[in-house]
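Weekly structure sync, notes
Attendees: PL, DS, HV (note-taker this week)

Item 1: Polysaccharide biosynthesis protein
DS walked through the input record. Source organism listed as Methanococcoides methylutens. Sequence as pasted into the shared doc:
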Amino acid sequence: MFSLKLSKTMMDVQWAFVSLATASFAHLLLRMVLGRELGPSGLGVYTLVFTVYMFGMQFAAFGIGSALTKYVAEFNEDLSKRNKFISSGIVGSLIYGSLMGLLLYLLSDTIGIGFFHNPDIVGLLRITALCLPFIALQKAVVGTLNGLRSMKLYAFVNIIQNVSVMVVSIVFVIPLNMAVKGAVIGFVLPTIVVGLLSLIIVRTYFTAGSTILGKALKELSWFGFYIVLANSVGLLNTEIDSLLIGHYLNEVEVGYYAVAVILVQGLSLIPMSVHRITYAASANYYVKNDYENLSNLLKNSFLKVFLVTMLISAVLVLFGQFIIRLLFGEDFLFAYKPLLVLLIGYSLYYPIHSITSVLSGMGKVTLVFRIALLCGLTNILLNILLIPEFGILGAAIATSIGLIFAALVRAHFIYKYTKSMYG
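Item 1 (cont.): predicted structure, written out as tokens:
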């Protein structure tokens, strides 16, 4: 009799996909509303503030969420040690998140006026700083759930977060007519609430006592340090174009470019879902020396992600103008050419990215950081050279070249270290 029963890994991928699909849908719908209600300028300001928030979130969490995924997966059968890591991660996240929130508040003038030349951004960044301790807590919780492979709860937390941000933001922007400020409050307020409530899920794993700030937190922080550096450089690698458009051009150009980026991020649903699962799964296979399953995981993941990515890219090439006009209106058709250029880079980058987490799973966190740093610096240089000359099209060209370079470098090291497992 034919069975529809799926493996644990495939079920996990499905839940990760549901989580990311909900996030992407909420992200797209919110940007559609903001684009139509606030125009290119308002969407541009919101995009700049949200981009700064994403960087703040990386440092606020300090990579502890990713570190917890690794250590919880490795010590899942040693309950005492596992719970010690979880408890240390929760406490450490609150400390690091609070420090990062204070730092962002103090630097809001420098970022808003000094870099973006827009005083309206200053107050919005100060509001944003309030939620960083709570997003750090949430990242620690979802990192724990990923390590436990409790993907239903993992998806639940992320879905609640993204749907609540979308709903609250729309309420503040349209009925309450609070414009960009309402949109910013719309992601800050739900982040605080969900961050606090998410602690309920892991309360049974928490071990009280001062000892939790000892060796376990040091291990998490050391591992997380490289993770946060690699992730931040990786984020910079994909967001530097928007930041430098805001610096060299203006918020209207940022708004046009944001639409191209939003659409091309539709490619990320499957790759990011696979990326999150291969991290925990590869760490588990590697520590058990189960190289055959690890190799099969990587090969199957890459091939399937590549095929899906090519299909979605073809749809965006053929129907991109129609989609932009339908979702955002005629004013945003300037986004189509940058979209085409970005598709080249992202369609080649995402299949490799989907399995890059195997390097972290093997403990090669310093290598991951060095790769990210090299690729990030290359992308920054390209954007600095091309944006002043070619505007948002130059940003798209620079980003695509940088992504292709990043894919080649990552592919080289994945092949090198997975091949070495077999001697």
